[in-house]
Amino acid sequence: MSEPLIFTFTSAIKEGKLQEYEHALREAIAFIKTREPRVIALETYIDDGTEATTVLVHPDAQSQDFHLQVAAQTLQELYEFLDFTKMSIGVYGRPSEPALGRITELAESGVALSLKTNYLGGFNRLPAL
Questions:
Q1: Which of 16, 24, 36, 48 has CA 20 to 30 A from 81's CA?
Q2: CA atoms in the 13 A half-sphere facing the CB of 54
Q3: Which residues sit opposite 42 in a β-bridge?
Q4: For 11, left (φ over 0), alpha (ψ -120 to 50), or beta?
Q5: Which domain holds residue 41?
Q6: Confidence at residue 128, expressed as pLDDT on a 0 to 100 scale
Q7: Backbone phi, psi, residue 93, to 5°
Q8: Which residues pair with 56 in a beta bridge?
């Protein structure tokens, strides 16, 4: 069994953009759910409406690469509602080299990054895909 690849994305929502963000997010989730059957989980949480965190779980790095290809335009539409100066990304598992390159570029632009690639162990009760 391959290791899962888990991402967390936390960002501030631009002032006055919560409703537009929620609408665009619902559309992005529906798009990804329909076109990316290997994504194990995609969940987004908000606080009082100023910050959102998305948790994305892939079964492996290939699923993440496919996600970056398929959902790029849809995700781009969300970006206009987010403040990237207040963004952080968590990566748990081993992304592919191209994905790691993109993540590194974001970190070099000032996005806070937590990268943990050395899997120690654990379990999940999700069915094997």
A1: 36
A2: 18
A3: 56
A4: beta
A5: 5-116
A6: 62
A7: 125, -175
A8: 7, 42
